[in-house]
Amino acid sequence: MSHIILLGDSILDNAHYVGGGPDVIAQVRERLPHNWRATLLAVDGDVTADVPRQLQKLPADATHLIISAGGNDALREAGVLTESAASVAHALTRLSAISTRFEADYRAMLQTVSRCGLPFALCTIYYPQFPDAALQKIAIAALSHFNDAILRAAFEVGAPVLDLRLICNQPADYANEIEPSSHGGAKIADAICRLLAQHNFAAQRTAVFV
Q: pLDDT below 70 — which residues of the chain?
């Protein structure tokens, strides 16, 4: 029997946002083979550096880890999106400093995850749904720095990736500007279960699931 553990943030811990509808963990459990289990350790509001604390509650029979982290790291830096800049070079330098800090935190988290000795998959950060078109474009551009760090780390350790940017790609996938709805959660759950069924973790080669 396999035991799947969901780690990270509100992308996987979205019960508060679905208005009584099924959350991601419930939808994962519905889709898993009957003799498999799933446990939610992700915490709404947590950042990448909180994942090691979540791992302290890891069940002894855990077999696979699914990690969605980074969205709140990006959110707490959102103020940079409206800062003034003397030049494009200045703005890019500012974003580079932020993404460098994030990448260091993300790699430190992955070191802790790797020490568990369990196969794991990583999630990219999906795009928000800001009603302001200009802000949406800026946010997408800024998130490319964070997602590049996640993908680079995944390629280096040979971990599979759930690309949430392509999974949650419709307004109905969102409960608000930044949280997944039950509709989006169903798509995330489908992708998780497809990855678990199809990916050869022993090969230690990155594959992207959408």
A: 78-86, 90-91, 93
CA–CA gap between residue 138 and residue 113 (Å, rounded) = 32
Structure tokens of 107? 């790699």
20/23 Cα distance (integer angstroms) = 8
Architecture of domain 3-209: 3-Layer(aba) Sandwich (3.40)
| Nearest-angstrom CA–CA distance, 100 and 47 | 15
3-class SS shares of the chain: helix, strand, coil, % to 5: 50, 10, 35
- Paired with 8 in beta bridges are 68
Q: What is the pLDDT of residue 91?
A: 67
The candidate with the shortest Cα–Cα distance to 154, out of 184, 114, 187, 189, is: 114
Give the start-to-end residue ranges of the domains of the chain: 3-209
| Secondary structure (DSSP) of 187-210 | HHHHHHHHHHHH--GGG----EE-
